Amino acid sequence: MKLDNTKAQMKKGILEMCILSILDGKEAYPSDILTELKTAKLLVVEGTLYPLLTRLKKAELLSYRWEESTSGPPRKYYTLTKEGKKALEELSLSWDELVKSITKIMSNE
Amino acid sequence: MNKTVTASLAGLVFHIEEHGYEKLLAYLKEVRTRLGNDEDADEILKDIESRIAELFIERTADRREVVEDKDVEEVIAIMGAPADYGDAIENDPDPQQFAQAAEGSRKIYRDTDDKMLGGVCSGIANYFGWEVTWVRLGFLAMLFFAGTGVMLYIALWIILPLASTTAEKLEMKGQTVNAQNIKDHFKQFQKEVQDLGSSTNKRKIKDAGNQLFSSFGKIVAIFFLIMSAMALLILGYWVFTKDFIFSITNTGVNGLSMSEFMQVMFTPNQNLLLTIGVICVFVGPVISMIAFAIKLFFNIKQNNKVAYIMSGATFALGVILLSVFTTFALRERSASHETVERIDIEDHYDIVHLDIFEDNHFSNDFTDSEDYFFELIEKDGDEVHLGWPTLDIYSSDGDNIELIVTKSARGKTKREAISNATSIRYPVQINRNKITVSPFFTFDLENRYKDQDINVILKIPNGTKVQLSEKMSRVLGDVNNDMDVSEDKLAGKTWIMRNNTLHIQ
Q: Distance, in angstroms, between A40 CA and closest chain B CA?
C-alpha cells in the first residue's frame, strides 16, 4: 500500500484552496507562498506551485503585476481577483462541511 | 579544477560548473516535456527558470562566483521531480504527443544566438539539421526571384516563435527531422486514412481531434492553403499584366491589359490608389494563409497574432484605399452634359446615301452592335477610340434634310463635362446627298473615359428615300420600319420615309 501516494493526493486537492487563502487580503510572490506552504508541510517540492499559479491565473481567480527585484529576476506579485475571492468563500464553505462530515464518520467508528 | 559554463537564466548570468549545467539542461528539458501540450507551458517554464535563478542567487550570495554541481542538485531537489509537474496540470499530456516529445523531437524556433537579422535562417537550419550558410545563400538566391525571399523571410520572422527559455533552445536542437521521422509521420498518415474508412473508428478520430488537426487533415490543409495563396497571387498578377479586354481590329485581335484599361479610365493618382488597394485586398488574406500553413507545417503551438493582425490590417487598408478611390472616381463623373450640332442640307434630294468610313482602327466586318459593346475600345498613343456611335433616322418636321450630332460626356463639374463632350472628335462628311459618318469616335487620353458617347440623328422629309450601305449596320440604332427588322437587316437596302417609319423600297 502506497500510503505516501494517498497522502500526496489528499494534499493536492486542497492546495489550490490554500493558495487562494494565502493570497486573501494580501499580495505575495511565489517565494512567499512557497514558504507558507512548506512550513505547513502542504508542499514538498517547489516546482508544483508554478503550473497551479498559472492555472488559477488563467481561470481569472488570480492576477499579478511585475515588480523589479534588487536581488534577482523580476517578481510576479499575485493577488486575488473578485472571482478569486468568491471562489475562496465557496471552497471554504465546502471545506467546513467536509471537515464536519469526516469528523462525524471518523468518530462514529 | 572544474570547467564552468556561462549561462543565462531569466535574464541573469551565471557561471555553472559544466557537469551541473548539463544536469540543469536535462532537467529543464524533461520538465518541458512533462508540461507537454499545455498552452501555458512557456509561461510556467519561465516562472520556473526565474525561481531557479533566485535559488542560485541565494546560494552564491556568500562570496562565491560559481554555481557548483551540488547547488544544481539541491535546487533540482527543491523544485521536485519533473513527473510532479505533469501531475499538477489538469489534463495529462496527450500520450502520443508525450511520447514524441520524450524522444526529443525538434521544434522550430528562431535562433537569436546565431543571427544575422532575425535568426530565421539559423532556426530553419537547426530544425532540418542543415548548415546555416546554405540556408542563408538560399534566401539570398530567392531575392532574385521577384524578391520572394524577402516576403518569405519577413513572414517567417513574424510567425516563428523565438527560442527564449533554455528548454526551448534545447527543443530547437533536439532530434533531427530525418528520413525515419518522415517515415513515421507517413505511417501515421496512412493509418489515419485507413481509420477514416472504417466507421467504428470515428469516435477514436474524434478523440484525436484534441490536437488541432490530425496528420491527414494537416497535409490536406497545408496543401489547400498553399494552393489558395498561390491562386490568389497568380490571379492578381494575371489581372494586372495580361490582356483581358479584346478588341478585334483591322490588324487582328488586339488586347487591352488591365493597366492600359485603367489608364483609359482613371488618372495616374487614382490608378495608384486602385493598384495598392487591390494588392492589399489580395495580399491580406494571403498573409493569413501563409502564416497558418507555416504554423501547421512546423507544428507551432503559439498563435501568431501579429501575422493575423497584419493580415487584417492589410486587408482593411486595401478596402479603405478602394473606397477612397471609388469616391474620387465617382466624383469625377458627377456632372453630365450634351452638346448638339445641327447640320442642314439646303438642297433637296429624292434620295440620301448613307455610308460609314473605312474603319482603320477596328474591324470593318461587324454586324450586330449588341455583341461588341465593350470590346470596341482601343488606346492609340495619347488617343482613345471607342467604336459605338449610334445613328437613328426620323421624319423631319420641315422639308430639309438635317443631321443632328449629339456628343455627351460626364465630368467633375458642369464645365468639365461640357469640355469633355465638345472635345470628342467625330468626323462627318457631307458631299451633296452622300452622308458619311465615322464608325468610331476619339477623345484625348488625358480626359479619361467619362461616359463619352455619340448619337447621330438623320432627319429626312416624308417621301425621301434613304439608301443604307451594307456596313451601316455597325452604327444603326433601333429605327422604325414596316418590316419590323433589326439594324443588320435594315442595312444594304433602300427605304422610303413615311410618318417616322421606313418602308421597304
A: 16
